[in-house]
Amino acid sequence: MPKALQDVTVLDFTHLLQGPFATQLLGDMGADIIKVERPGQGDLFRTMTFKNRWVGGTESPNFLAWNRNKRSLAIDLKAPEAKEILYRIAEKADVVIQNFRPGVLAKLGFGYEDFKAVNPRIIYCSGSGYGDSGPYVARPGQDMLIQGLTGLAAATGRGDGAPTPVGSGFADQIGAMNMVYGILSALYWRERSGEGQEVKVDLMSGLLQHQHQEMLWVMNFEENLERPHSSIGHPGMDAPFGVYPTSDGWVTIAMSPYKKLIGVLDRPDLLVYDEPQLLFDKRDEIWAKIAEETRKWTAADLLDAMLAVDIWCGEIKRHLDVVDDPQVRHNGLITTYEHARAGTVKVVGPVVRMSATPPAIDRPAPMVGQHTEEILREFGIGEDAIGDLEARKVVAQAE
């Protein structure tokens, strides 16, 4: 079937998580992603994993997670020939995307103005930690650091414990979504105007925007929201919103009529708290009393009882349990692809549904330089020239 972005070519200088996730999303929609990597080494994420475990014994799960539907071009960016090759690709490319520290690629001759001179219709998207100027511009823009700087870590966890980062690369992934949002908007504008442009995204701004309801409250009332000392699920919410223990696990209870929950638990004495200000002021005390009751139930029985009266609730599952969740299976979210070294790799597939141009996994994550020769041939570089470039280690093909 056709793909929505099948005529879009992306020259991808990204590494680690933010940029690679953005280009993977574009690749899932059919864009031709030419991933530029260092010969032999490639993306730094190829060397990183959790618990020193490697898929198929050799491949980084961190890299595999964000780099499907791409081709790898291994090229030394400092070699004089690199400009000639990459500018030739840029003449026909639609998008250049990079997430190096501000100024790094421009010093090598791969900034927006360099590519604009080659192709005025080019869309050049940069992702950074804090923007390309200002007091933090030289700081490392890593996900957990951004969570701390924007207030997210301080708003997460129990009030009697340390600030708690989110258990995923949330800032990076929000940054990736903003990159895609900016790139698609720029492509649409170019279709109408014929003009390319520069798009800039930074992690700090993106994560701050995604806490807008909390920020708006704090700024307008000039007061911080304090974390509860219990498992109430948000610093601004009242009881019973939160996480509760059962005899065999945990459940979540979201915005629900307090009276209905007290009815399920058969504790009419707790109705004394049923007043909006008390439900906030006494939320930790209320949480403890409700938790005493939820511990008497199995998670399944409690969920059945709450769902029967339309209380908003759900299970707490660990990642391995999620794989077998009936709704996850129904939606077909877990799939596989075959990798030359890693073998069969289990992955979460594309999540956007499109009737005419559905996304798909057409390529596994590439090996470093796996497509170098293929890409160079496509852009008119002959066999003798390719052989010479490889001999002088300007480019490299995967072994």
TrEMBL record:
It comes from the Bacteria. SUPFAM superfamilies: CoA-transferase family III (CaiB/BaiF). This is Crotonobetainyl-CoA:carnitine CoA-transferase CaiB-like acyl-CoA transferase. It comes from Labrys monachus. Coiled coil: none annotated. PANTHER family: BLL6097 PROTEIN, SUCCINATE--HYDROXYMETHYLGLUTARATE COA-TRANSFERASE. Keywords: Transferase.
